[in-house]
Amino acid sequence: MTTIAEEVLLLAHEETEGKPLVGATQLDSALGGALLAELAVNGRIDLDGKKVTVRDATPLGDEELDATLARIAGEAKERKPDWWVYRLSSAKLRKRLLTGLAERGVLNEEHRKILGIFPVARYPERDPRVEREIRERVRSVLDGADPDERVAVLIAVLHAAKIDRKAFPGVRKERVKEIVESEWVGRAVAKTIDSINAAIVAGAVAAAAAAGA
Fold first, then answer.
1. How many angstroms separate the CA atoms of 15 and 17, rounded?
2. Which among 12, 97, 94, 49 is positioned nearest to 196, based on CA atoms?
3. How far apart are alpha carbons 161 and 26 in whole angstroms?
4. Are β-strands 45-47 and 118-122 bridged in parallel, bridged antiparallel, or unpaired?
5. How would you write the pLDDT of the chain (213 residues) with one tens digit per residue?
6. How far, in Å, are 15, 85, 131 from residue 118 at the CA level?
7. Which of 162, 153, 138, 158 is nearest to 184 (CA)?
8. C-alpha of 21 from chain center
9. Which residues lie below 8 Å from residue 146, measured CB to CB, with a gap of 6+?
10. What angle do CA 77, 203, 21 make, to 5 degrees?
11. Neighbours of 75 (CB within 10 A)
12. 3-state secondary structure of 77
């Protein structure tokens, strides 16, 4: 099983060269939002657009998700979704997730130098079956199938970070909007999607402002 954050990460990288399709700020904010979204879908937290509250502190059995849940539960006061997205988003989180996928044989981790000087890491696919299954689920929904909660949230996160148009060229904006706003996913998940979308955008803006300060 892959988490929503891992699925975002796989779809946000080119398969052969392992290059990211979007900038680090967008991608890191998407990953922070994906962690919150998965906790919400699994009934661990509530997102009402104003504050993140813990409903159930029971671990899910995933290291990143459980650490995030514990961090939220241990915070002295309730915070807004965008506050959490900003603080959960980091290059370290991205690196941990990529390394985890490499250790499981989904990706290769390759270290190179640009112009023979600047070190970079690339993550081309090693086992294409994992991303292929994810793409098939997402593509089916983009082509008209009714989405389940998880796929609807994944598409919403991809859309908020502008990864959808890169990972699925030619995707119809009308269909994405229909998925994000559809009653199929239920009122609670629709509320989660709204909060995550806004939080990802706000988190990316805050991160970009901090980098330029």
1. 6
2. 49
3. 5
4. unpaired
5. 899 999 999 999 999 989 899 888 888 888 988 998 899 889 999 876 578 899 999 999 999 999 999 999 999 999 988 888 888 889 999 999 999 999 999 999 998 777 667 788 889 999 999 999 999 999 999 999 988 888 988 998 888 888 999 999 999 999 998 887 764 333 443 455 556 666 667 766 666 677 666
6. 22, 29, 29
7. 153
8. 14
9. 184
10. 145
11. 14
12. coil
Q: Name the residue among 175, 209, 148, 213 with its Cα closest to residue 25.
A: 209
Dig out the tokens for 207 from the structure: 């991160």
The amino acid at residue 150 is R
Contact 99, 109 (CB under 8 A): yes
Cα–Cα distance between 135 and 179 in angstroms, integer? 16
Q: How far apart are the first and last CA of the chain?
A: 39
Helix residue ranges per DSSP H, 104-212:
128-142, 149-160, 164-167, 173-181, 186-212
Which structure tokens are listed for 171?
């995707």
Residue 196 corresponds to which tokens in the numbers above? Answer: 């995550």
C-alpha triplet 180, 66, 103: angle, nearest 5°? 90
Residue labelled with tokens 């680090």? 24
Please name the helix (run of DSSP H) or strand (run of DSSP E) that holds residue 76, with its range, or none. none
Residue keyed to tokens 């962690």? 35
